[in-house]
Amino acid sequence: MPSRVALIGLLLLAIAPVPHAGGLGQPITIQIVNPGFDERMIEVVDNICRQVVFSATLAAESSVRAHVCTRGMNKGDVTIRNTLTGAQQRHADIIDDVRLTAP
Questions:
Q1: SS3 of the chain
Q2: CA 38 from chain center: how many Å?
Q3: Strands 28-34 and 99-101
Q4: Which of 19, 37, 68, 94 has the fewest CB atoms within 10 Å around its CB?
Q5: pLDDT tens digits along 20-47
């Protein structure tokens, strides 16, 4: 019975996603900007590492920084969602220190 449990455990480890494998580059920092006069509830999803890197209310006329994974040529890929309106924007091939506007 213990060997069966160990075998199942190894199988689960083998098929589990590995977020930092597969030729990932150095993480980059991006800036999400809210140029509007109202606050926006946003969620920033790193499409390479498949994780939410920021989820909160972004105050009017403010910005926030987030770190995201990269691939090839150290370019990132994120989706920014406005969780109240449902508006979203995908930004592929982004570079370090890029400024992205929240929808």
A1: CHHHHHHHHHHHHHHCCCCCCCCECCCEEEEEEECCCCCEEEEEEECCCCEEEEEEEECCCEEEEEEECCECCCEEEEEEEECCCCCEEEEEEECCCCEEECC
A2: 24
A3: parallel
A4: 37
A5: 445 789 999 999 999 999 999 999 999 9
